[in-house]
Amino acid sequence: MQDEIDTEEIIKDIFQQGKTCFIPRYQFQSNHMDMVKLASPEEISSLPKTSWNIHQPGEDEVREEALSTGGLDLILMPGLGFDRHGHRLGRGGGYYDAYLKRCAQHQHTKPYTVALAFKEQICPQVPVDEHDVKVDEVLYEDSAP
To answer: What's the chain's average pLDDT?
Structure first.
């Protein structure tokens, strides 16, 4: 089973609506992450993969960074587990938590954060630290009638 929702169709829809799409570029030697502009939905499959099996532009490739051009309205948050209170269990690097703190320093309005999850990823409670940022909404398929 996959551990994250595939966002390919969401990315295609973003471009079909004429919106701008940014994707994460991780610096694995630190917890630094930038959100860099994606040129087209087709481009993502041609980007190199990280050790986490994530397509991203190379660190030396010059790209527009979202915070340098006004910031983001929405961030889709990955995670391994979530609870119904918006707590998120990531992979332990703190990339998204640090990025959201940078957003707070550079943007007037906080981006809305949405976690896309499989129902199996919803837990009664996930462990959190003081630096963890809650997500605004966790979306998952609910099999209850």
So the answer is: 91
